Amino acid sequence: MKRVIFCIVALLLLLGNSAVAAVLKVKTPKRVEISSQAVKPYIVTIQCKAEAVKVSASEQWLGIVGEATLEAKATHSVKIWAEPNLSTTERTAEIELRGVKSGAVRTIIVSQPPYLQSITDGFPVRMMGSRYDAESWESCGICSPKGSSAVIAMVGTSGNALTTTSEKGLTVSGMGAGDYFLFAVPAENIKAGEQIDFMCTMTASEADAPKYWIFEYWDAGRWNGIESELRTAQQDSSIRYSLYNKRFRSAHNTTYAQSFTLTEPIDNGCVKVRLRALTAGSGKVKLTGSSKYISLQILRYKDAPKVSDTRRMLFIGNSFTYFYGTPFMFKEIARSQGHQVDVVASVKGGQEFCEHLQLERSIEAIVRGGYDYAFLQDTSPNAAIYADTHDPAIIASCRKINDLTLKHSPACQIIYEHTWGCPYGDYRGYGSYERLEQLLESGAKQLAKELSEYNIIVSPIGKGFTIGREQNLPLLHTDNRHQSREGAYMKACINYLTVYRTPFTESVSNCGVSPKTAKIIRQIAEQVVLGR
């Protein structure tokens, strides 16, 4: 009999606990709906009566701003954030409220309608300049590049009041740690193991913009970083970052490129990437829209051969490097041929070697080290000036940048770029294409010869431009000075062949150049470098 009574008491206690769990004393809405963009935090009023309550979200696209524990006997305005719903169907999640003492639970259903009407494959994404849907960005912090089905969004997880404006790019003010730029590209069928390349240019418009950022991509149900590529902040060893963005006295953009491979397939979904702020900053930060910079590029390598080797390459240069993103074109061409290239670039308009040696970002890029190749491009006329005057300051700067490069990358092969002639400034003051081109070529060769202890290779880009000009190829931009997209492709092809020394295969990428013109450019590049 005692045993029966004991069992009955135990059962009553169990039922009592269940009853407590069923009647958590809070007052909340049963269901909330947030917008498909969800740029601003949504406020949910929660009244805690008898005990403190812990708040959590059931899905990674949804989160709680600030403290996760609410005090008892108080009314709270809880902010929740959500990513845009980049799918074609409504989705739901739960906000769980759990009593700290009782363990009793109540849930709030959160629903979110879709942002996309349909999935239309958005690869490749190639953004130059400021071709964004600025009106959409300014109104709701989410937009698509013009002519693309890709999506760019601002996601605020910190609860800060974010301001989105368009000022020669996509600008955000007031970011807190954890807020992020989200990039998504609709994809109809991506197989497991397929590689994606992400490339962008970011700049700090004000001194107090967030400095440290981490790159992450969505795969296997979570956000993934690339641990091997992370660096440690000097002033705070707890900060492990992918890139840093800083306002310099003279603007110097952050140029970033990263490859990643998906372990799970995507069928009628989106490839998602984010740049997440690790430190807060009220100042303006933007995805640049400066003329002829790569603003954003996201590529997939659907039919590319497997990677046969991986090499790390440094690009130091000026506008003759950054117009149309020649380092990124090099990376794209190499991957289409089965070579993986990890790119680090420091590019700033008009810079000579001596000026790069005074730039924090250029020094940081060189000192990072571990490079297999370094493409060093002095300001374009310097080779011609050296051939004409033998200015000792030019060769002295060459020695200094070579020494710094090899100090941190002892096995690195240094490559100088023999650049091209142009009509600008009466052919740089030399009066004709022929005279300028002759000086540029002889000057590059003289520098390499007089610096023979460095075993420098000269990439004969200027020779390719000369042949292309004779064939009326549009290799110059409308300013008759910088490279056009076709000129950038010529430069990238010649640089590629200078490294790999093998002809192009049929799978080579055109990098956005028309197939017919791209083929002619490749033939010229092979003629110049390989003698074919």
Tell me the helix content. 25-40%
Major β-sheet profile: 7 strands, antiparallel
DSSP strand content? 25-35%
Coarse morphology: elongated
Structural class, judged by helices and strands?
alpha+beta
Radius of gyration: 28 Å
Number of beta strands: 30
Mean residue pLDDT? 92
Say what oligomer this is: single chain
Report the uncertain regions.
4-22
Count of DSSP helices? Answer: 13
How far from one another are the termini? 102 Å
Please describe what this structure looks like.
The protein has 532 residues and is an alpha+beta fold. The protein contains 13 helices and 30 strands. Strands 10, 13, 14, 16, 22, 24 and 25 form a 7-stranded antiparallel sheet that branches. It is elongated.
Q: How would you summarize this macromolecular structure in one to three sentences?
A:
This protein is of the alpha+beta class and 532 residues long. Helix content is 27%, strand content 32%.
Task: Please render the helix and strand layout as text.
Layout: H1 2-22, E1 26-27, E2 31-33, E3 42-48, E4 53-57, E5 62-64, E6 69-70, E7 74-82, E8 91-99, E9 105-112, E10 125-128, H2 134-140, E11 142-143, E12 151-155, E13 163-166, E14 169-173, E15 180-190, E16 195-204, E17 212-219, E18 222-224, E19 231-233, E20 236-241, E21 243-244, E22 254-261, E23 266-277, E24 285-288, E25 294-300, E26 309-317, H3 319-322, H4 326-336, E27 339-347, H5 353-356, H6 360-368, E28 373-376, H7 382-389, H8 392-408, E29 413-417, H9 424-428, H10 433-450, E30 457-459, H11 461-470, H12 485-500, H13 515-530
Name some characteristics of this structure.
27% helix, 7-stranded antiparallel sheet
